[in-house]
Amino acid sequence: MTLWFTRPGAEPVAFRFADRVRHGAREAVSELARLGLPAEIISGDGPQAVDAVARAAGVAEWRAGASPEDKAARIQALRAAGAKPLMVGDGLNDAAALALAHVSASPGSATDIAQTASDIVLQRAGLSALPGAVVLARRAQRVARQNIALSFGYNVIAVPLAVVGLATPLIAAVVMATSSLVVILNALRVGKEA
């Protein structure tokens, strides 16, 4: 972006501004691609600026000159195609798209409205925490499914035994407490593996 400063009787002076790529962006984009999440940039900035940022971050697909409505429409199009888009944004113009995304994130330096619209606010500088958040979320989802299966299995076996009188109330209580303990211990694995 270029701004011109001028005053009467003097030559105009150009001030050129360029966006810097956030710390860890290239690594985060690469790691997200490895996790099956290809990246694209949709920005309101001009084509030269967006191209430079896309090259620096290692993003092949980009679009410049996008309005907030364009960003929201892209998220809606991805969802309509069956995708579960992860949107990362930091500005006022990103808020609608962040709210529409399946999952959204913003850096700690983002505007208040972007942070409010996001599911995740990255407290560390840069984007390096984002792939780790995806891995942790996937692990938590896997453990939650295991816990549902464990609970379902307990109920399929224990409830009929109790109904027909093959399990005393004491045995049923011990088995129920044990199954609850197994579910809790399984859930605690998520934090230890992170």
Q: Characteristics of this structure?
A:
single chain, 194 residues, alpha/beta, Rossmann fold, 2 domains, three-stranded parallel beta sheet, two-stranded antiparallel ribbon, 7 helices, 55% helix, elongated
Polypeptide structure, described:
- The chain is α/β, with parallel strands linked by helices and 194 residues long.
- The protein has 2 domains: 20-127, Rossmann fold (3-Layer(aba) Sandwich); 133-193.
- It has 7 helices and 7 strands, in the order ββαβαβαβαβαβαα.
- The chain has helices spanning 25-34, 47-57, 68-80, 95-100, 112-117, 129-163, 169-193; strands at 2-5, 13-16, 40-42, 61-63, 86-88, 103-107, 120-122.
- It has a 3-stranded parallel β-sheet. Strands 1-2 form a two-stranded antiparallel sheet.
- The chain is elongated.
- It starts with a strand and ends with a helix.
CATH level 1 class label of the largest domain: Alpha Beta
Report the CATH architecture of the largest domain. 3-Layer(aba) Sandwich
- Average residue pLDDT: 89
- Total of helices: 7
Radius of gyration: 25 Å
What separation lies between the terminal Cα atoms? Answer: 41 Å
β content, as a range?
Answer: 5-15%
User: Element order, helices and strands?
Assistant: EEHEHEHEHEHEHH
How many structural domains? 2
CATH topology of the largest domain: Rossmann fold
Poorly predicted regions: none
* Strand segment tally: 7
| Helix content, binned percent | 40-55%
Q: What overall geometry do the principal axes of the alpha carbons give? A: elongated
CATH superfamily of the largest domain: HAD superfamily/HAD-like
